[in-house]
Amino acid sequence: VHPNVSQGCQGGCATCSDYNGCLSCKPRLFFVLERIGMKQIGVCLSSCPSGYYGTRYPDINKCAKCKADCDTCFTRNFCTKCKSGFYLYSGKCLEKCPDGLEANNHTMECTSIVHCEASEWSPWSPCTKKGKTCGFKRGNEVRVREIVQHPSARGNPCPATSESRKCIVQRKRCQKEGKGKKNREEKRKKSNKDESKETRQESKGRAARRQNREQRENNNKTQPKKRKAPNKEENLAPVGTAH
Fold first, then answer.
1. Residue 155 burial (10 A CB sphere; 0-12, 13-18, 19+)
2. Domain of life of the organism in this record (predicted)?
3. Is residue 229, in this structure, part of any structural domain at all?
4. What is the pTM (predicted TM-score) of this model?
5. Segment among 47-51, 164-168, 212-216 with least mean pLDDT
6. 100 and 123: one domain?
7. pLDDT in tens, 85-95
8. Alpha carbon of residue 242 to chain centroid
């Protein structure tokens, strides 16, 4: 063993030196060089820090630097997060997104352009004027539609969601609400009155028929029964033989 190499190291080092820090790591730990001023110190970590990616070899596990424009990476050629001012696209960090894509400043990625989409138009509404459907000849009718997909920053803007056009209706007078209500009330009262009148008439008719029936029954009870007239043939004496 070299005189500057120590076996009793701290911080996960398998071997180390007082000047260079860790020279090798314990199993499953990654070896990485950290710069402190003009000097590089070896350290052993369970995972690689930001800006590095890990590689495993049979004799040692190392942390290697990502590209200069990459903040975190899976390999040197596949970035997972870019540094400020760059946009991620297919593992690469770009200053400008390719054609057909747009820069998303929230995720710092190049994403597909999304255009606005609207639903089908609704049927035309009834012809109205100042909120009324009567008392005029020319009015307006409208139809609407909904936005089902909002656009991205560079996508096509959304169209109008409502349309209006002139319309013509057959002129008719508006029935006043108070007058209409009064007419309905009068009809209801008249109907109830007619029903009551018919009910009273039916009651009187039934009472009169019952009274006539009782009168006939009483007359039949008070009148004497007629005696049966004798048979004329019975009153005639038999003609005897003269003696």
1. middle
2. Eukaryota
3. no
4. 0.48
5. 212-216
6. no
7. 999 999 999 99
8. 131
